[in-house]
Design goal:
The complex is a heterodimer of chains A (462) and B (175). With 462 residues, chain A is mainly α. Chain A has helices spanning 2-15, 17-25, 39-58, 68-77, 82-109, 118-141, 145-159, 165-173, 180-212, 229-240, 244-269, 295-303, 306-330, 342-364, 376-379, 385-396, 399-402, 419-422, 425-434, 448-459, and strands at 28-29, 242-243, 404-405, 408-409. At the A-B interface, helix 7, helix 8, helix 9, helix 12 and helix 13 of A face helix 1 and strand 3 of B. Bound molecules: FE2/S2 (inorganic) cluster (FES).
C-alpha cells in the first residue's frame, strides 16, 4: 500500500496532477445542470470515437484514386472486424452530426451564448461547420461511384461562387477532371486538415467552458446584465455550486457511453452503407445521393426555382454563417429563459420542421425520373393492340418515368390513372406536343402514329 | 562604464536580438510555406493541353444515334486507375458530322443518361431533362449540355478531352 502511495506521490510531484488538473475536474458548476447539458460532451465523445476508428480505418485503407474502392471492399468483406469498424465510423459521423445539432439547439434555446460566452458560441459555430464538412468529405472517401459523383457535385457547388468558383472547384478536384489527384485531396482534407482544425477549436471551446464556467440553467425573469453578471455568477457558484466531478460529470459519462454503445450496436446489426459501383467516371448509370445529413440540401437544390439557385448556393451558406456568428452580438444580454423568448423557440421549431420536411422529400425524390419503373404492357394485359402499343410507348418515351398509371410509374408529374375522365383527346395531344413547365415538349420526337396511339391510350385511362 | 549604461546597452542588445529572431522566424515560416502552399494550389498552375482521343470509326456510329463513348482524360497519371476514364455522349448527327455532349448535367454535375426511345437526356439527381440537341427540356439545369470538340481524322472519330464543365454563378437560363 505504502509502495503504491509512494509511486503515486512521486508521479503527482513530477506531473503536477493534483495541483493543476484536479481543480479543473472539481471546478464548481451551477446546480441543476441536468440532462439538457450532456449533448456537448456527447459530441466530443463521438469525435474521439471518430478519431479512434478513423485511425483504425486508415490502417486498412488505400487513399489512392485507383485502389481506394478495392481496399474498401477488403475492409468491408475481409478485414477482421473491418465491417464493424466501417459501421462505427459511419454511424459515429451521424451521431456526431445529431449531437452537435441538439447541443446547438439547446444552447440557443437556453440563450447560453449571451455574455460572457460569445466566443464559446462562435467557436461552436466553427465546430458545427467543420463537423458537416467532415461528414461530407468522409462520404467521398468511400470512393465508389457515389463518392466520385458526389465530388463532382461538390465541385459544381463551389463553381457557383462568383469569380473564383472555377478555381475553387479545381482545387477541390485537384485538377480539371476526376483523376489520380482527386482522392488524395479529399483524404488530406478529411484526415489532416479539418481534424486539425477541429482539435484546435475543441481546445478553444473547452478552455472557454472552464474559463467562464458552465452557464446556469435559465430562470424566467433573471436577466443577464454584462455589468453585474460575472460577480453574480461567481457569487452564485460560491453559494450553491457543486463540483463538476462527480456531481455533474456522471451524466455526461453515462450518456456518452450509451451513445457510443448505440453506435456500436447499429454498426454490428445494421452495418455500414453498401458500396455501389466502382469509381469509374465513365459508368454513368448511377444515381448519386448524399448521406442523410446532406439530403435536405440536396432536396432544396431540386426544389428552388432555377433562376435563384446560384444565389442560394452561394449566398445561403454565407448568410447562414454571418447570422450564426452575429447572433451573440445582436442579443448578448437580457432574458435567457425559453418561456420568455417564444420567438426563439418558434424559430427553432420552424427550422426543425423545414429540415425534416426536406429530409422527407429528399428520401422520396419526387422530382427524379423513376428509370426502373416496370413497363405497363408487362404488368397489364391489353387485349386491344392499339392500347398495348400506347402502353409500350408510354414507357419507352419516358412518360412513365414521371407519371404513373394504375400504380406504375414515377411521381414527378401528376398521376394519369384517370386522365381520360377530365381531359379530351385534343387537350392531351396539345400537352404532349407542347410540353409544360417541368415537362419536355414531345412534338419533335413522336411520329403522327405514335402520337395518336399515345393520346388514345391516355384517353382510355378512365 | 557605469552600471546604468551597462543596463541600457544590455537592453538595446536584447531588443535587437529579439527583432532578429522574430524576423528570421518569419523567413523560416515563409520558406516552409512556399512548397506547402505550392502543393495546395498546384491544380491552378498546371495547364493541361487538349488531347485528342480516338473513340472509333465513323461507321461504328449509325447516323442519327447517340451513344456513350469512353476515353481517357487529358492527364492520366500512372496511379489514376479507372478514375482516368471519362465519357461523353457522341451523336452522329448527319453523315460525317458528329456532336459530343458532356455527360455532366449543368445543374450540379450528375451523369445524364440518354434515353434512346424517348430521345431525351435525363438526369437522375434532380430531374433535369435535355432534348437531343442538348438544350434544356425541363428541370433545374441552368444551361444546355456542354459540348466537346469532335473531329474525324484519318478515318477515326476523335474527341477533344476537356475539363469537367463547371457551371458558374449567374450562367443564364438557356431555352
Ligand atoms: S444535377 Fe442534374 S438535375 Fe441536378
Amino acid at each position: 500500500m505504502s509502495v503504491l502511495q509512494n509511486i503515486g506521490n512521486w508521479l503527482d510531484d513530477r506531473l503536477g496532477w493534483s495541483e493543476n488538473i484536479m481543480p479543473l475536474i472539481k471546478h464548481p458548476v451551477p446546480p441543476g445542470a441536468k440532462w439538457a447539458y450532456v449533448f456537448g460532451s456527447a459530441t466530443l465523445f463521438c469525435f474521439i470515437l471518430q478519431v479512434v476508428t478513423g485511425i483504425g480505418l486508415s490502417l486498412l485503407y488505400q487513399p489512392s484514386s485507383a485502389d481506394a474502392f478495392e481496399s474498401l471492399k477488403f475492409i468491408t468483406n475481409q478485414a477482421t472486424f473491418g465491417r464493424v469498424l466501417r459501421g462505427i465510423h459511419f454511424f459515429g459521423a451521424s451521431g456526431m452530426v445529431i449531437m452537435v445539432g441538439i447541443h446547438m439547439i439547446r444552447v440557443y434555446i437556453m440563450a447560453a451564448y449571451k455574455y460572457p460566452r460569445e466566443m464559446s458560441w462562435i467557436s461552436g459555430v466553427f465546430l458545427f461547420f467543420l463537423t458537416i464538412i467532415m461528414g461530407f468529405t468522409g462520404q467521398l472517401l468511400r470512393w465508389d461511384s457515389n463518392g466520385v459523383w458526389s465530388s463532382v457535385v461538390a465541385a459544381q457547388n463551389l463553381g457557383r461562387v462568383p469569380l473564383i468558383g472555377t478555381g475553387l472547384a479545381r482545387l477541390l478536384l485537384g485538377g480539371d477532371t476526376i483523376g489520380a489527384q482527386t482522392l488524395s485531396r479529399f483524404f488530406a482534407y478529411h484526415v489532416f486538415l479539418f481534424p486539425a482544425l477541429i482539435f484546435l477549436f475543441v481546445g478553444v471551446h473547452l478552455y472557454l467552458v472552464f474559463y467562464h464556467g458552465i452557464s446556469e440553467p435559465p430562470k424566467a425573469g433573471q436577466l443577464v446584465d454584462p455589468k453585474t453578471y460575472r460577480a453574480w455568477y461567481n457569487d452564485m457558484l460560491k453559494r450553491v455550486g457543486v463540483p463538476f466531478w462527480p456531481d455533474a460529470a456522471w451524466r455526461d459519462a453515462l450518456f456518452g457511453a450509451l451513445v457510443i454503445l448505440a453506435i456500436v450496436g447499429l454498426a454490428v446489426f445494421v452495418g455500414p452503407p453498401e458500396l455501389t459501383q466502382p469509381p469509374d467516371p465513365s459508368i454513368i448509370n448511377t444515381s448519386p445521393a448524399p448521406d442523410w445529413y446532406m439530403l435536405p440540401v440536396f432536396a432544396l437544390f431540386a426544389l428552388v426555382p432555377p433562376a435563384t439557385e446560384s444565389y442560394l448556393i452561394f449566398l445561403g451558406p454565407v448568410l447562414m454563417v454571418v447570422a450564426l456568428l452575429a447572433l451573440p452580438f445582436v442579443s448578448n444580454k437580457g432574458e435567457r429563459s425559453p418561456i420568455r423568448r417564444p420567438w426563439a423557440v418558434f424559430g427553432v421549431a420552424c427550422v426543425i420542421v423545414f429540415m425534416g420536411a426536406l429530409l422527407y422529400v429528399g428520401e422520396r425524390e419526387p422530382w427524379s425520373p423513376h428509370f426502373d419503373t416496370k413497363p405497363l404492357a408487362q404488368v397489364i394485359n391489353y387485349a386491344n393492340p392499339k392500347l398495348k402499343q400506347g402502353a409500350i410507348l408510354f414507357h419507352d418515351k419516358g412518360c412513365q418515368y414521371c407519371h404513373e398509371v394504375g400504380g406504375q410509374g414515377g411521381i414527378t408529374g401528376p398521376s394519369l390513372t384517370h386522365i381520360g375522365r377530365t381531359w379530351t383527346t385534343d387537350q392531351i395531344k396539345v400537352q404532349i406536343v407542347n410540353g409544360a413547365t417541368g415537362m419536355p415538349a414531345y412534338g419533335g420526337m413522336l411520329s403522327n402514329k405514335e402520337l395518336t396511339d399515345l393520346v388514345n391510350f391516355l384517353h382510355a385511362q378512365q | 562604464m557605469s552600471q546604468e549604461e551597462n543596463k541600457t546597452k544590455e537592453e538595446s542588445r536584447r531588443d535587437f536580438m529579439m527583432k532578429v529572431s522574430l524576423g528570421l522566424g518569419g523567413v523560416a515560416a515563409l520558406a516552409v510555406s512556399v512548397p506547402v502552399v505550392g502543393a495546395l494550389v498546384a491544380p491552378l498552375l498546371e495547364n493541361k493541353p487538349e488531347v485528342w482521343r480516338t473513340v472509333g470509326k465513323p461507321d461504328d456510329f449509325p447516323v442519327g444515334e447517340t451513344q456513350l463513348v469512353r476515353f481517357e482524360n487529358a492527364d492520366p497519371k500512372a496511379w489514376a486507375g479507372m478514375t482516368a476514364r471519362t465519357a461523353a455522349w457522341l451523336r452522329h448527327d448527319t453523315e460525317g458530322h458528329f456532336i459530343a455532349f458532356s455527360v455532366n448535367c449543368t445543374h450540379l454535375g450528375c451523369p445524364v443518361r440518354w434515353e434512346a426511345d424517348a430521345e431525351l437526356f435525363m438526369c437522375p439527381c434532380h430531374g433535369g431533362v435535355y432534348y437531343r440537341d442538348g438544350s434544356v427540356a425541363s428541370g433545374p439545369p441552368p444551361k444546355e449540355l456542354q459540348r466537346y470538340a469532335v473531329r474525324v481524322e484519318q478515318g477515326q472519330v476523335q474527341i477533344g478531352t476537356g475539363p469537367i464543365p463547371i457551371t458558374n454563378f449567374g450562367d443564364e437560363q438557356a431555352s
